[in-house]
Amino acid sequence: MTDPSTTTLLLLALAGLAAGFVDAVVGGGGLVQLPALLIGLPNAAPVQVLATNKLSGICGTSVSSATYYRRVRPDPRTFGPMMACAFVGSVGGAVIGSHISTTAFDPIVLVVLVVVGTYVVLRPSLGESTLLRYDGRRHVGIAMLAGLLIGCYDGALGPGTGSFFVISLVGMLGYSFLEASAKARIANWATNLAALCVFVPQGAVLWKVGFVMGACNLVGGYLGARTAVARGTGFVRIFFIVVVAGFVIRIGGALLGLW
After folding, report:
1. What is the DSSP letter of 176?
2. How far apart are CA 206 and CA 53, in angstroms?
């Protein structure tokens, strides 16, 4: 395909900046970037859009993961196994994602987001502080299973992955929103890397677009992580609800043909 115009590239860069900030705080940057790529690059194949989104995304998750790790110090005994399983799941998902239509996932994502958002709103104390529900092997086992399943989804499509990591760590394991966001960013970095391991050999990445968006995604990721750490769990929870509501409206409206 031909290179996008300068105007299109600038608009995609802005989308990358916004996506990086959102993704660093609560995840879901792909729900900002993917529509932008689909609109800005109408002649690109679906696998090229997915691959370019991953390249941009890994730039942001790299800097936000490092920021969270330095400032929150998440426990590697949880995020390490979760990260490894997320990597494996994402490789399998990326292979699947090379051959399926992305629109097949929209109804599923919508239902999950509605359930997750409702659950968080109805449980105002959820994620205020870390109160682990399990320990030992059971704790690690649940984290690994969540990593594998969410990683597979991320490799195949991706939008909302970070949010799914956050809510699984908060709702299933009992972490605070801030600590869950820290672990989610690291696991999400692994899923982006795994997907690129599949997409790059296929020649699917649009490098110029990916690096421009990635540079802006990196800035957004840094600002988002710093903001989340500075503002704390309460800010992350409210931001999570707002972002999930926005995603529900966007996906639901698209399915209903409103835009």
Report:
1. -
2. 9
Give the ranges where 98-206 is alpha helix by DSSP (H): 106-122, 136-156, 161-171, 177-199
Distance between CA atoms of 200 and 187, rounded to whole angstroms? 20
Kindly tell me if the per-residue pLDDT of 102 is higher than 60.
no
Per-residue exposure over 51-83, b if at least 16 CB sit within 10 Å of its own CB, e if not: bbbbbbbbbbbbbbbbbbbeebebeeebbbbbb
Query: pLDDT confidence of 59, banded at 50, 70, 90?
Result: very high
CB 28 within 8 A of CB 22: yes
Domain ranges of the chain: 6-255
pLDDT tens string 133-166: 888 899 999 999 999 999 998 888 777 788 889 9
